[in-house]
Specification:
Distance between the termini: 27 Å
Number of helices: 19
Order of helices and strands: EHEEEEHHHHHHHHEHEHHEHEHHHHHH
Helix content: 40-55%
Shape: globular
Strand content: 5-15%
Largest sheet: 9 strands, mixed
Length: 408
């Protein structure tokens, strides 16, 4: 096992349900990397963008006066699978979304969301309540016109026209189509209906194992953001099936689930496959797993150990509770605090302040994931004002029992 100081790192990032093209994701990463460099007083540069069917990739070099890190960053693609759903017309999307709603309600997922985190239950209900509200507005408009014209037929036509207009503009501005697609995909994933994605994860798992065998990386990180945390577990389970000893010698292996939706899938009664994968991944001897959660992110399960919530027989992740407010300058936070999607994306964005959680410091910094996760303030006390690496913090600065209770 290598020490906490990292000079070379391999990262596999699995994003959430967001149809962002790989080149746009690269431009966003490059912009946020500059912000990271300013916050931490470090130099950071990125190579040219490369892309194929399965992965988009680029290399990052970061350095301070007494340290340097090379990061091979690989973005696992599933934007094409998401985009296929985006192209679906609303007349097809709505019945599929309602089917997903019924499925998640009658398999007990909604009630489990209420027990685990009521905010997430609200996130689940939001698109369906929004559809009901828009339908009610359209019905009211149709009823009023029918009364004025004394024609039920005219009222029905007017109601349908108003509903179509509402679904075409305010619904899209309020993210209704994308949220419907998210739940449609989630139901299909649970029911085993994503064979193309399964084949892709299989190929990437083989590449992860092959790369780990031939490269001299100090650390391999698999990061899952939002629904990508589910895919990260899927990917690691496949990799461990190919090479059970990965992480036990050579490069350390770490899993980061941030703003995670693991329980979104896991609390569905039919999610047998994910729960089995979680047990195998959490039990892997060579793997360190940390999960970061925040109260203001309604799309994660705040103060929840996923393994305990599912009653699974394996040690859960080291859970760290972080504050989005602390990561940003006050004017910026005030501007985004009610934009739930933007708050959710802060888990994969650069910070304005040096705090315990910083995505880019975990990906590009000189300290291992485990070192940062177990330190009360992450890398903040280890990096000087000029970007110099001072002294690596003690691994045991934050006891797991305190972190899981949300006391850190």
């Amino acid at each position: 096992m290598t020490g906490p100081i990292i000079t070379k790192r391999l990262v596999f990032h699995l994003g959430g349900y967001d149809p962002v093209a790989p080149d746009a994701a690269f431009r966003r990463f490059e912009r946020e990397l500059g912000r990271f460099g300013r916050t931490w007083s470090v130099n950071a540069s990125v190579s040219e963008f490369r892309c194929d069917l399965d992965l988009a990739a680029w290399c990052i070099v970061t350095n301070g006066s007494n340290w340097s890190v090379e990061t091979d960053y690989r973005l696992v693609r599933w934007d094409d699978i998401i985009a296929a759903g985006v192209r679906r017309p609303m007349w097809q999307r709505i019945p599929l979304a309602l089917l997903a709603f019924v499925d998640f309600v009658f398999t007990g997922a909604l009630w489990s969301y209420l027990r685990a985190n009521w905010r997430y239950a609200g996130f689940f209900l939001y698109p369906f309540l929004l559809l009901a509200a828009l339908t009610g507005i359209a019905a009211l408009a149709g009823a009023l016109l029918a009364q004025v014209t004394s024609s039920a037929f005219a009222g029905v036509l007017a109601g349908l026209a108003v509903l179509a207009a509402l679904l075409n503009w305010p619904a899209r501005w309020l993210h209704l189509p994308l949220l419907f697609d998210d739940w449609i995909f989630s139901r299909r994933y649970i029911r085993g209906g994503e064979p193309d994605l399964a084949l892709r994860l299989e190929r990437i798992a083989r590449e992860l194992v092959a790369t780990a065998r031939r490269e001299d990386a100090d650390e391999i990180i698999v990061i899952g953001h939002s629904l990508g945390a589910v895919l990260a577990i899927d990917l690691l389970d496949r990799a461990l099936a190919f090479e059970p000893s990965i992480g036990r010698s050579g490069a350390r292996l770490a899993l980061l689930s941030v703003g995670s939706s693991l329980l979104k899938i896991g609390l569905h009664r039919k999610a047998f496959r994910l729960r089995s994968e979680l047990v195998r991944v959490a039990s892997a001897a060579g793997l360190f797993w940390a999960e970061y959660q925040a109260l203001t992110d309604v799309m994660n399960f705040y103060k929840t150990d996923p393994m305990m919530a599912l009653g699974l027989p394996a040690q859960g992740p080291l859970v760290r509770i972080v504050r989005i407010r602390d990561m940003l300058l006050a004017p910026i936070y005030r501007r985004i605090r009610y934009n739930f999607y933007r708050v959710h994306c802060q888990f994969v964005s650069a910070n304005d302040r040096r705090v315990a959680y910083d995505y880019f410091m975990l990906v590009c910094g000189p300290l291992s994931v485990e070192c940062q996760a177990r330190s009360r303030d992450g890398a903040a006390s280890a990096i000087g004002p000029d970007g110099t690496l001072l002294q690596a913090p003690d691994f045991e600065t934050v006891p797991e029992s305190q972190v899981k209770a949300g006391q850190a």
